[in-house]
From TrEMBL:
This is Outer membrane beta-barrel domain-containing protein. InterPro entries: OMP_myx_plus_Proteobacteria. It comes from Marinobacter nitratireducens. It comes from the Bacteria.
Amino acid sequence: MENRTEHFLLSSLRGLSKKSAWFAGLLALVPLGAAQAQENESTSAPVQVIEPDISPRSISEANLDTEFFEVGAFAGLLSIDNFSTEPLYGISAAFHATEDFFIQFNYGMSEAGLTSFEELSGSNVRLLTDDDRDYSYYDFLVGYNIFPGEIFFSDSLTFNSAFYLVGGVGNTEFGGESNFTTTLGTGFRIVLLDWLTVHVDFRDHMFNSDLIRQSQLTHNIELSSGFTLFF
């Protein structure tokens, strides 16, 4: 009985030893396979990397560094309510308090022509003397840059620019009257150099006048352009 038991145990141990040896052989083959795969990858053809041919573009633009004051001159056309559209010219000065807000002073001069009634009446009727036809105004405006941006003229040349709104009050001398004036408008500015800008402005100068009829609110439309210097 004991011999049979010993024989069975010896046979089981021999079977386990064979299985363990077979399993250990498989484990030994796994690193060899991984190493062979890495060797095959290293000996394969190198991967070609295509780099895009992009060269940086150099742009030259005018910047305003520490210049806060602006002075200049402008010229354009002024449509005087109830009268004709005449040439306009003047001077301006501005102080840029912040990047967005500025304060502006303007002085402009023009000369009114004949009304349609005077033209139809011939040379016998004149509502105003020659001196009274002189039109001049001054105003103090507050401006706000609503759309600052840039204008590209070429691949390497660009200029800073801005659309802005203005509004304020002033006074108008016309027809022998001195009239309190409210001014609203908009404009566009291009910075050509860090000390030179060009403007295009549209303004409405509004005041009450009784030259033609009693207590009439007149709208005097200005379209002008000019150059200013920064310092």
